[in-house]
Amino acid sequence: MTDAAATNPTPARNRATAATPSRSAAVIGAHRIRYELRSYFRAPDAVFFTFLFPIVMLALFSVAFANAADIHAGPNVSVDYANYYLPGLVATGILLSGTQSLGVDIAGERSDGTLKRLGGTPLPVLSYFIGKIGMVLVTTVLQTAILLAVASLLFGVPLPTEASRWGTFAGIMLLGIATASVLGIAISALPREGRRATATIVPIVLVLQFISGVYLPFTQLPDWLQNVASAFPLRWMASGMRSVFLPDAFASAEPGGTWHLGLGALVLTAWLVLGTVVCLLTFRWNRKDA
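Above: the chain's sequence. Below: its structure in token form.
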């Protein structure tokens, strides 16, 4: 009994000690989420160009095409322009809040010395990532909720009533947020200076919107451009959201006449893994060439 009592507490203490860093990182990360959210909503440019942009675009398209004929996918199946553009703008919101917002934000923090100062504190890198990705999750969910409310209440867009569609929506959204967030962290290493971050990252995101079926019907693009777009996540997030918000007949307007949800999930997962690897290999509190 004496020997057991003397030896058993040691492994228990070791297990507790080993678990403490990860628990501490999670707790610190939760505090970082609140800090990142306050910083985000105090930046008017970030709020407009990432948070409000899809809502403004939906309002513009809805008003501009209010008197236009509906978009048809068959003799008896049609939707108005607000309904048609909603799925792509939901997907765009995920990309803007994740890839664009984080890419520009982190590049700016690296350039102005914020990351270097954080690197001199006990803040774990994991906690920093939790704060950034948590901010993206909260802002994207809030942005999407407002976008859907505006579409439904102001422009009469019918929202899905089937639980299966909302399940697909949740899966695409969560996978899209994770993928867009790690890609935002990864792409933040591209700009050599913070003041060049917007000029470097925003054009990439803008081009992806135009070739991924957000503003233009995807199958109207040349085949080679469809193939290029299909290598990137936004094309699959947009088509996945179309499968949620558009009638099934609109699948005929997709390549191959189907939504390809399984393939889309594989492409998003591949980008999630690739983005995570790039983050682990390239993220530094300070540039080596600074």
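Residues 26-282 form one domain.
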